[in-house]
Request: fold
Amino acid sequence: MPSDAPDIPDTPDDISTPEEIPVRYLVLLKAVTTPEGPPPPELMEAIMTLGEDARDAGVLLDTQGLQPSATGARLSLLGGTLGTADGPFTESKELISYALYDVRSREEALEWTSRFLRAHRDRWPGWEGEADVLKVFGPEDFPPPAPA
Amino acid sequence: MTTTTSAVEAVWRIESGRLVAALTRITGDFAAAEDLAQDALERALRQWPSDGVPEHPASWLMATAKHLAVDAYRRRLTLDRKLAELVQETSHEQEGDPMSDVDEQLDTVVPDDLLRLVFLTCHPALTAESQVALTLRTVGGLTTREIARAFLVPEPTVGQRISRAKRTLAERQVRFELPPPAELRARLGAVLAVVYLIFNEGYAATGGDDWTRPVLCHDALRLGRLLTRLQPDEPEVHGLLALMELQASRIPARTGPAGEAVLLADQDRRRWDLLLVRRGLAALETAEDLGGGPYTLQAAIAACHARATSVATTDWRRVAALYTLLLHLTPSPVVALNRAVAVGMAQGPDRGLALANKLTDTPALAGHPELAAVRATFLQQLGRLDEARAQFLLAAERTPNASQRRLYLRQADAVL
Reply:
């Protein structure tokens, strides 16, 4: 099948450096210490603005807050037995949100995430948490088998 | 590349557009603003590796550019004042600190700034390659090195394209403003064309060894997503984004294990990127609701493929009908060729071949590898194997892309 191929002015020339690959990162935000009461409205506002910025920049594919694990459940497979347990889970850290970024480098994902944490630091004194930045597998992670 | 350099580049990618736009607004001079922004970037690249990345990197860049702007402004002011004093000795107009004005302007967020910037970097007075380079650098926040690498050209070539573009904009006295309403659609069309050009060079690399260069597709997608935020009511902005998201969803399946090209018919559709498919279909719906256009039609065609589980279950009648519409809207030999393929799939290879044969006299398609490949495919289906093989070899001869050439040679070998 043909694909529309436009006229492109450039001619190929020297190329020696390895190519950069666009990558996705899943960021999982966890709360360690949460002060009493609801999050301040200024924080919520800052988070909205940040999300807007990231969407404007075309890098934020998805983000949502997560309800406390009390509303969820955990399914397990242990020793050959399937189990179901209702939340809350017993860990000290609650997962509170996720974000999926589409970026050109790891640093870019780290930058957006630190902005997110800084917003918490500046607007919700006492809040502590951590964000796991996980690289999503892409086609480039499956190396081609050696040619026969 | 050090981690700090990557960190600088990451901040730059996020901030470049807004920074250049704000600086252009206050200086009223795009070329000067771009220089200031680049100076700030260079300063960051020099200082951050030794001083560490500042706590607020974005503000640091803005403040640095601001200082540079104020310095330049002050120098010019001094010069102007001296000139004024020379010309007429009385000049008592001193309205407070002129710098506070600059500060205020830089801190004011003007929503249309970025949009003005995009119209500027995609200005019709510029050549396509300059539009591409300038847009990727200022709006996309790519470094000259990154652009050079993506387009497989030497870095100085990109530098020249950018300085030539800045010179042209200055000579034409192009202003930092939104086009008048009567011209808006046409100018927006030029912007979309630049974005799609970038996408296509990534999607169907015309030169080099690689079949695709996903990083360019990614840059185009980012620009496309940005445009839907800047011009949410324009159908074709969403149409183009839908088209790009849907096409990009196939990238993981378009290359085989040895880097070889895999055509739509042979792709493992389980490898298509479902998230991009979903985003593409959503953007298509918005585009259609707003009234559509040529990009929207192309996206609708891409959606036919995205929804089908195989070539056999594809709604080729709908694809053919959409191509007919598209051909009326934007007559082009390539669209006519694609229509021939769809008609052949819907109504049989003889119908497709007849349409493709009619195109052999079209000058624009005379040396086109795809035309030969399409004819080859239909000839093969009709059992005319010698002719099919000859057409595959012709296609291989005509393509400038190494990966595509190997594909056609493989197909030629498979005929007999």
Notes: Chain B has four domains: 4-106, 111-204+213-224, 232-245+271-307, 321-416.
